[in-house]
Specification:
single chain, 203 residues, alpha/beta, DHBP synthase, ten-stranded mixed β-sheet, 26% helix, 21% strand, globular, L-threonylcarbamoyladenylate synthase
């Protein structure tokens, strides 16, 4: 059964965040709040956890497009090719925020992202995922709990989320009601921003 942890954005309890970190380090899956929709996350370097995440989304891991959740831009060079100054300035002016930025991937990606040519980078404007990444010491892999082709009421209510994913994840972080609009996906691989999906973030 999933453990429900009530963690409040204005004053996240350190002991509960530490419990989340321990779960991630042990290969567990979590559901966490963001500035858009509640999302599924796991340790980006744990291949078994990544496989569980893919299985949960009913896709093959090699076909997955899981975003990488960072708490700032300091991890960019770990996953992406060198980017132009203008692109970096654009990124800096839009994070944290409700955006997923597609960038050219480098060859040092974690095993689960092997052979990916591009990677989606996200820095949510929400203290809890930022704190999780900071305490974990590296980004997490992430995917929305919402399916693009469905309008689902449960996706905003952490209690209903916990009910649906009770035997599928290890921890559900209850941080109050979430949003029901996904992030805006912006492709930056050409050097100029191209909106792939309009979501909550406005450019």
């Amino acid at each position: 059964m999933a453990k429900i942890l009530k963690i409040y954005p204005d004053n996240p309890q350190e002991n509960l965040i530490n419990e989340v970190i321990k779960t991630l380090n042990n290969g567990g899956l979590i559901i966490y709040p963001s500035d858009t929709i509640y999302a599924l996350g796991c340790n980006i370097f744990d291949i078994k956890a990544m496989e569980k995440l893919a299985q949960l989304k009913k896709i093959k891991l090699e076909k997955s497009q899981f975003s990488i959740i960072c708490n700032d831009l300091s991890h960019l060079s770990d996953f992406t090719r060198p980017i132009e100054t203008s692109v970096f300035r654009f990124l800096k002016s839009h994070i944290p925020g409700a955006f997923t930025f597609i960038l050219d991937a480098n060859k040092s990606l974690p095993l689960a992202y092997k052979n990916h040519k591009t990677i989606g980078i996200r820095v949510p404007d929400h203290p809890i995922p930022q704190l999780i990444v900071e305490k974990l010491g590296h980004p997490i892999a992430s995917t929305s709990i919402k399916d693009d082709d469905e309008v689902i009421e449960y996706s905003t209510d952490p209690e209903l989320i916990a009910e649906k994913y009770d035997h599928l994840v290890d921890i559900v972080i209850d941080s109050g009601y979430g949003d029901n609009i996904a992030s805006t996906i912006v492709d930056l691989t050409s050097g100029e921003p191209e909106i792939i999906r309009q979501g909550k973030g406005i450019i």
